[in-house]
Amino acid sequence: MADNTETTDGTLGRDDDVPASKKAKLTSEPASKPAAAARTRAPPVMRDLKAVLSFHFSGSNQGTKRSEGRVRWFDKEKGFGKIVPLKAPARGLLEAPEEIFVHRKQIEGGPEGSNYAGLVQGALVSYELTTQEDGKPCAGSVQCEGIAKALQTRISLAAGVQSSAKDSQLRNLLLSGLRAGSHQEVGKGKVFMEDRLLEGVGREVGTLGTCSKASACAFFGVFDGHGGLSCSEFVALQLERNVFESLKDQKKRDASSEQVFRSALLAGFKVTEHSFLQYANKLDVGASRAWASSGSTACTACLFGPDEESRLRLLVASAGDSRAVLAKKDGLSVRLSCDHKPDLPAERRRIEQQGGTVAQFGGAWRVILKAGRGHVTSGLSVARSFGDVDFKVPAEIVSAV
Description:
By secondary structure, this protein is an alpha+beta fold. It has three domains: 4-42, no CATH class; 67-145, CATH 2.40.50.140; 166-178 and 189-339, 4-Layer Sandwich (Phosphatase 2c, domain 1). It is 30% helix and 25% strand. It contains nine helices and 20 strands. The strands form six sheets. A five-stranded mixed beta barrel has the order 3-4-5-7-6. Strands 8, 9, 10, 13 and 14 form a five-stranded antiparallel sheet that branches. The N and C termini lie far apart (90 Å). Residues 2-62 and 90-95 have low confidence and may be disordered. Its main location: membrane.
């Protein structure tokens, strides 16, 4: 092989580039002159391959040069294989072998990393040429150039396809696959049915908050009327529409899909209550006043999905003592709502702060409204409800939210 010498700028040049006078100086200069030796570091003896590699890739070069190659083969169980260089290095002190040994210890990120996962036959890799303990050349700091990313992309795409199929299944379930049943009976002593129910039709609601998935929703409700049917009927007709109208205003919030839906439910309850009271306040005398004085509980269940994690979600919102219970396949039941009774400490405290009274009357705890001139004392067995104007004007003793 041709001899190389190190030029003064730190690069390796061929012997033909060095003037004859310089050659003579390099070969005949006695070792006793350290200044000349420092300027022209002599290459090590070729028999010591490790020393040759150390010389060839020493710190005197301007940075460590990375080479490129393709994986000839790699046994992931045993942890070693061979790389074929893409380009032969410039002729010099070291003739690179046709195949370069690679060991798992030299893979960046180790056996658990993405570079190791990408070591398949034909994979493009970059590496630093180094040596093993026995002085033989090997690849060091091995990185996969694109194959690991491709594998990760392939995994992500597969997961995306699976997630997309699940998302579509959930949407179809909510839009057309749910079955609902109901049964009603007029209570003892009642002349007519004061209760109403809502079996919502599934609808598309699009993306919600930070969730990029298009969602669908189905809304259900039970409304237990008292003092007449006007309030329960009003709420059954208006609440769902008001919730979804509120959802339009909430959709672009920087919040999760669940937070967006919770806010829409709260806003829908408030708007429905406000609308009923506005209408009721216009009716001030006679039969119309009696019609407007009715009230209603509400227990709603909202199914929506997919959420950020492709799940089906259930949100329950209630006012009053209508109760939501989840029946499980194993026969067990899970209570999903809280009965808003006047004797609950938090409810009682709120009622009394607003000037109301809580007492037992007729076998139940009730919110007692002091009788005014021309009125009789009245009591309400729930702490929260829609309607019930007498308990909300002028002071909001009973609340819908």
